Amino acid sequence: MAEETVDQDIQDLRDQFLNREFDEVTFEIDGTRFAEYAKVCGETATKFTDPGDPDFQAPPTFVSTLVGGRSMPPDFPNLGGMGMDAGKLVEWKAPVRDQATLTGRSHLHDIYTKTGRSGRMVFLVTRMELYDSDGTHVANADTRTVIRERPRG
Amino acid sequence: MAESIPTVTAIADVEFGGELPAFTPDTSIDATRRFGQHVGWNTPRFTDHDGARKEGLPGAIVPGVMSQGFLGAMIHRWAPTAEIITIDTVFRAPVLVDQPHKITGVVTDIDEDELTVEIDLTVTNEAGETRVFGTATARLPS
Predict the structure, then answer these.
(1) Is A121 on the interface with B (CB under 8 A)?
(2) Which of B81, B89, B95, B133 to mutate to test the interface with A (most CBs of A within 10 A)?
(3) Number of residue pairs across A and B with CB atoms under 8 Å?
(4) How does pLDDT run across A92-131, given as a tens digit for each residue?
(5) How far from the centroid of its chain's Cα atoms is residue A86's Cα?
(6) Is residue B16 over pLDDT 50?
(7) pTM to 2 decimals?
(8) Residues B11-26+63-139, CATH architecture
């Protein structure tokens, strides 16, 4: 199997920043907010849309709407290009209920590159781990930011 | 918005390569404004065509987190008992507000031991261009 090569500057960033927590924020979950989210996204199951349902809970993708205090470590270097939201990943582990208090802790989960005709793109994956007040890990919410580097020289 | 008919209640109902009923999400300006009012992303680029054009966009765009919500809803409409374990969404290009879009899905793997299925989901515009692509793993009853 071919060994994956990583550019040295990216390896340096990985060594310095991966898996280092840089943000913690608390969310008070409002069931009316996630019910509206569910309805506007097209959910029809009452467990997502009706607060009267005994199993009322947020759709799994709702945690992508929870935004932390910052998306990058404060000392992360400016890579010199425009950052764009390239995608979201959710790992669902347990239901998020109305009036839950969640704690979101963020770290950089991955840094990798793709190189195309227009140059190198750097992908930064910020993971927010979400825990309820009992300490139950309810979800991971990843945001993938892509930075298209400006040509050098 | 088109209503899909739930066809799947257990993993035995799922066929490899089977297609989910196509889903037409509500990408209207009313929908993004409602999303902005209740959930967030309440800025002109999502809620006002003229405001979005001033930012250099061709018009207002659907927030990425809303597109991801469409994908989850599509799975639940197909299989109301499904528990989505992971859902990864790639934003390839903007989903333009007030433009018709369609979501298609196909089952790409079935794990009968783990009771899980993998599904590829694609949001396309009227020209057939892929705007958002997703991959999900969902658990179903035995």
Answers:
(1) no
(2) B89
(3) 101
(4) 999 999 999 999 999 999 999 998 887 889 999 999 999 9
(5) 11
(6) yes
(7) 0.93
(8) Roll (3.10)
